[in-house]
Design a protein that fits this description.
Length: 314
């Protein structure tokens, strides 16, 4: 008989492409993963994997089992999501992947309000680039992703997304900067001007570079950071100007530590997006998190599976 636990291990191996990577993700030893897969092969009487120099690939029989396993686990998770009353859970967790600005400035507030409603549930947050968040979604490392920006060249067919809200970005300077008293500035002033920005490869960095390049502008990069807090500190210290989303500088602007300056004839706006894997049903805790977010972002409601209210009545 096929055991669900072994099918779950099998799924992780197929997603990771190796026993060692699957073992790390499952918090098991590599011999334990190998044993599970050997027992699964013995139970079916076929080989499921081709052992390669680096990792494994599926045999034709393994590909057939993968297709069935996707359907089996989908139905199991769908049933779990439909029937679990999260208010009665002693423990539970939703895993969220987010880009740096979102994870630092938005998710902590969402988490605080969520755990006030569900004190026994937790939110596990991992910070990554947009492409890293997408990888984590499709491999099941996270339940949901929240990113700011463009998805065209990193999209996967099994994903879906909705826009939560528009995000305004702004040119920001510290109080020692020569533009501190300026009310509006032309984009040409940024050419060769000292500039603090995100690291290469960041979607935000790519987006800003493309906009400035389209205007014939090339700032003089004086610092590159992978953390928005580091960018703010460098800007407040007078290292240069930067461009940041409005939610990241609310407190500093209110306290007179940073100043936002409009750029003439240039609107900087991106979209905050929620991402999920269409091949995996929402876990009960992920569904509860979505219901909670829907109070702030009305566009979420259509994607939340509807559950009859009388299920939990006895």
């Amino acid at each position: 008989m096929l055991k669900l636990s072994k099918l779950e291990v099998f799924t992780v191996v197929t997603e990771e492409g190796s026993f060692s990577a699957a073992a790390e993700r499952l918090h098991l030893s590599q011999p334990a993963v190998s044993r599970h897969m050997q027992e699964l092969e013995d139970a079916l009487g076929i080989r499921l994997f081709k052992r390669l120099r680096r990792g494994v690939s599926l045999t034709p029989g393994g590909e057939i089992l993968r297709d069935y396993t996707v359907q089996i686990l989908y139905l199991v998770r769908e049933a779990e999501g439909a029937l679990t009353d999260v208010t009665s859970l002693a423990v539970g967790q939703v895993k969220i992947g987010a880009t740096p600005g979102v994870s630092v400035y938005l998710l902590p507030r969402w988490t605080r309000s969520f755990t006030k409603v569900y004190p026994n549930l937790t939110v596990s947050l991992s910070t990554n680039t947009t492409s890293g968040v997408i990888d984590d979604i499709v491999t099941g490392r996270v339940d949901l992703g929240v990113v700011e920006g463009e998805l065209e060249d990193v999209w996967r067919e099994r994903l879906d997304s909705i826009v939560l809200q528009d995000i305004d970005l702004m040119l920001v300077v510290g109080e020692e900067h020569p533009w501190w008293e300026v009310n509006v500035i032309g984009v040409e002033a940024l050419d060769k001007h000292p500039f603090v920005t995100r690291q290469p490869g960041s979607r935000t960095r790519v987006w800003i570079d493309e906009i400035l390049t389209s205007k014939g502008i090339q700032p003089r990069l004086v610092a590159e950071f992978d953390n928005p807090e580091a960018i703010k500190e460098a800007t407040m210290a007078g290292l240069g100007a930067t461009i940041l989303p409005d939610y990241a500088v609310t407190r500093e602007r209110a306290n007179g530590l940073l100043r936002a300056i409009p750029i003439a004839d240039l609107q900087l706006q991106r979209q905050l997006k929620l991402l999920w894997d269409t091949e995996r049903p929402f876990s009960p805790v992920a569904r509860a998190f979505l219901v909670h977010l829907s109070e702030m972002f009305r566009g979420i409601e259509p994607i939340i599976p509807k559950i009859s209210a009388d299920i939990f009545q006895s």
